[in-house]
UniProtKB/TrEMBL annotation:
The lineage of its organism: Bacteria, Bacillati, Actinomycetota, Actinomycetes, Streptosporangiales. It comes from Actinomadura physcomitrii. Gene3D superfamilies: Protein of unknown function UPF0759. It comes from the Bacteria. This is DUF72 domain-containing protein.
Amino acid sequence: MRLHVGCAMWAHAPWQGRFLPHPLAPAERLHAYASWCNAVEGNTTFYATPTRATVESWARQTAPDFRFLLKLPKTITHERRLADPGEDLRSFLAAIEPLGPRVHALWVQLPGSFGPGDLGALAAFLRGLPPVYRYAAEVRHRAFFEDGRAARDLMRVLGGAGAEWVPFDTTVLFRSPPTSDAERDAWTKKPRVPRRAPALTDRPVVRYLGRDDPARTVEGWRPWAEKVAGWLREGRSPTVFVHTPDNAEALPLARRFHDEVRALVPGLEPLPDPVPAEPPTLF
């Protein structure tokens, strides 16, 4: 029984010297992050496929049971809209090979314009993917959240491929007006869709966006803590990513979420102690 938790990135300026040692060489940053969390979102792969040498460095810095949720390149999901991924997909799969079992799933994040009428393209794309990896899709078209038939059709397509539906829960962010610059920015960029919780596989994935006030973030994730505890009792192995608009406290918040779920499921093993941000002193 294992719960994986993480953040949207492993290097973030507000964490330096507070939660993570500073300075740190690039080849050491993921290792320090991985002492706090046991999963991370691979958002950078959306913008460019990393070199194989870079991915080999990621593998060296993490244990085999660390989880990456790697986003497919935007050339595949947004520009070609899953049609004829060809060389872009082959290059991406070759680059990430050194991660081996650390790849929790390949993340197909689709644009808001990708609606029910595009499900045929998603089904064909998923059928053509190699079975060595698991897959997860994130949709943002409101029909999938408001039209029961559209939701069922999507679940049928994903279920046929053994893929998970990744919810991005932004309901806490939009519950009341923003109170910081980061929250105001998030209001203009994040999807405003209803919360969705059902899991399709034994490895559900949740992306949760709170507020810059940690107390409001914690209050808002209570339903997820209960849901994740239930998944663990059912024998599932969930992964939860904690976001806030500025992500300044996301690292300790992810660990706090793990602690709260562990209070509900005492058999869950605790996370290891993180690497201290500063070396120990003699006094």
